[in-house]
Design a protein that fits this description.
Order of helices and strands: HHHHEEEE
Strand content: 15-25%
Helix content: 55-70%
Strand order of the largest sheet: 1-2
Oligomer: single chain
Keywords: Membrane, Transmembrane, Transmembrane helix
Shape: elongated
Protein name: Zn-finger containing protein
Bound molecules: zinc ion
Radius of gyration: 27 Å
Largest sheet: 2 strands, antiparallel
Number of helices: 4
Length: 131
């Protein structure tokens, strides 16, 4: 049985990160179908599972590999964007961003320090702001 399976899988693509992702989305869709009883999720689950199996058994290994690479790049991009947004949100909570009236340099000032004199690190202009 194991040998038969190995012979069957020879020259076929197999599993990858994109397929794992497709399976996870399929499972989520299946759960949503059970909860909401919407046939849309049933169809989606079916389509995703078929897609994943077609990829696993595909003989066009280069194409599947490319798809996976594109998927990983997109995933990285989205994760990066998400991290950046979290970072900026934290910055906005703890800092004021002021713009130098002279050179338009953006200056980050911690919040809650009362009125302070800010000196622009770029052009040395100083101005007073409430922090
Ligand atoms: Zn300046």
């Amino acid at each position: 049985m194991k040998e038969r399976m190995q012979r069957f899988m020879a020259g076929r693509y197999g599993n990858d990160q994109l397929n794992q992702f497709i399976f996870i989305v399929a499972i989520i869709s299946m759960v949503l179908e059970i909860i909401t009883r919407q046939s849309l999720f049933y169809t989606l689950t079916l389509v995703l599972l078929i897609l994943a199996y077609v990829r696993v058994f595909s003989r066009n290994i280069n194409k599947r590999y490319e798809e996976n690479m594109k998927f990983l790049q997109k995933k990285d991009m989205i994760l990066n964007k998400f991290c950046k947004q979290k970072y900026y949100a934290a910055q906005r909570r703890n800092f004021h961003i002021y713009t130098c009236p002279q050179c338009k340099q953006k200056i980050r000032i911690p919040k809650g320090k009362g009125k302070i004199r800010i000196t622009c690190p770029k052009c040395r202009t100083s101005f007073i702001k409430k922090s």
